[in-house]
Amino acid sequence: MSKKFYITTPIYYPSDKLHIGHTYCTVATDAMARYKRLTGCDVMFLTGTDEHGQKIEDKATAAGVTPQQFVDNIVEGEGGILDLWKLMNISNDRFIRTTDDYHVAAIQKIFRKMYDNGDIYKGSYKGKYCKPCESFWTESQLVDGKCPDCGRPVEDAEEEAYFFRLSKYADRVQHLLEDTDFLQPRSRVNEMVNNFIKPGLEDLCVSRTSFTWGVPVDFDPGHVVYVWVDALSNYITALGYLNDKYNDYDHYWPADYHFVGKEIVRFHSIIWPAMLMSMNEPLPKHVFGHGWLLLDGGKMSKSKGNVVDPYILAEKFGVDALRFFLMRTFPFGSDGNFSNELLIQTINTDLANDLGNLLSRTTAMVNKYFGGALPAGCKAPAAPQDCDSDLIAMASALRNTYEKDMEACAPHTALADVFKVIQRANKYIDETAPWALAKDMEANGARLAHVLYNLLETARICGILLIPFMPDSMTQLFAQIGADEAAQSWDSAAVWGSLSETAPITKGDNLFPRIDMDKALAELEAAAEAARKAALPPLEIEPFAAENVDFDTFCKSDFRAVKVKACTNVKKSDKLLKFTLDDGSGTDRQILSGIAKWYKPEDLVGKTLVAIINLPPRKMMGQESCGMLISAVHKEKGEEKLHLIMVDDAIPAGAKLC
Ligand code: ME8
Prior knowledge:
By secondary structure, this protein is α/β, with parallel strands linked by helices. It is built from 22 helices and 25 strands. The strands form seven sheets. The protein has a six-stranded parallel β-sheet, sandwiched between helices. Bound molecules: ligand ME8. Residues 10-13, 21-22, 24-25, 50, 231-232, 234, 260-261, 263-264, 292-293, 299-300 line the site of ligand ME8.
């Protein structure tokens, strides 16, 4: 019976379209799943979407649709998550949505099970809440008073809530992290133990009453289940745990690997095992926390506006080249800086130059010198030379090192090893100079055939090991070198000489044409600009002022950077927000601004804004306003829209704008 292998990606928030950073983890999981299938494992590869929570509810409200309509569009709509995974050739066996009925019902049973086991109890929650991350934090966990994950301001929150006895499992979880290879890479263990377990693991708030878009607690329907309890459980509900939709929990669980980004390692390596301990279920074997793809040194995120669109890149460079780049370039456990230049450089060097050239030169020579098939007997040379045995030894040993790398979740190292052999093969062409041998076919024909056979065989072995990364391109490679099914198998990758001596060779298109860097960069910039413009709503701009203002008059206006210390709604006004501002003077400044329609007060705390401060104070709704906050204003479908001008947080309060 074949060995089973269960691997998962995180389930993605359908709050925005996905970017290349999200694609990174799914491609890595796909490569691993394909590798395991290649080796003969019975693989279950799960991905999906994490659709509940306040963030989604808020976004849906802003978009004027129901939360379900909102997530349906991002998951199933054109250019949505399902389309993206299809485009990227993701071979998941199952796809779970946390709004699926079977999952919702199973979550209610899971919650009740932990409650019945005495691990969930009712209490009242007071704490610091980060809305975008949907995470509660203790004072000591905050960094500079802000959310330790995303750096945004947190707010005080108190509500009646259910709690999970996470503290009860602290010792067992610490042992799991420190004394086993559960959490990888090893470097992540200290961070978890020192930052979260040693300071004292507190019980976890696992229900909410402040919004409704979630799984209701069936025995207390005013509460919805905390989104992370709902989300983490997907890994077992998708196998049929406490539901009848699927029936392979006993077969596939425990998971072999959860691949997750580093910022959600905490949930997967502390909360998730504790939940499973509470339910008396086996623990996953490994959690691997990969790094982030960075852009300009920071994490890509829609709110920062620095995302890279995988659709544009895949269309321009091909899906396989993009998949390859992601896996080849960035060590899986570390952060890596994404750039279009690096992408093009990698494609040109590894794919066009090294692999593409090896294949096109070799197949062209077999066609030119032997009419498309080598003669029988070419495998065994009359007089082997050092360079032959060197190449053969390297290629024959490759599968073993590659296997070790892949088993250690180091796809970047596995690919580096494959490309060392490809580079060796290209050097072998220079050393053996087939074109010189071809000048005297009578004397050198057998030697030439042997040289070309060695090259084809090297391409075949490398091709097999590249299947998990570039499946479609490798099908083309095998067609060009005439490798039959047996010669494409995992087993045959360890057996030198598996390619038939007389395999029919076709010279096809270069699998990876060279890319003109400057031209491609300009085209990408134009495509990104077009996408940015298309995403903007049609604007109606205010007419420009006809009259000039004289310079001295303008200079009298005192514009300053101000930091929002507090912001609240003004009673009985649906227009006004009251700001307490740091203007650098040491005394708080109060300004009232009519922007309540466009902003929630809590979202503005901590932001750096621009104010004109030398206007005469005036009273609004009985409160004094000393200055005015500057906004950009335009009309959208006839309706006025205001955007507060926010500037770099590095600008100190009180800095003068001139
Ligand atoms: O976290 N580089 O969903 P999500 C690398 N719903 N990986 C990145 C990345 C980047 N720039 N940006 C995002 C969630 N990711 C939860 C998961 S699992 C039970 C629930 C990765 O859509 C990120 O690290 O915000 C995470 O692993 C994944 O994309 C999904 O992020």
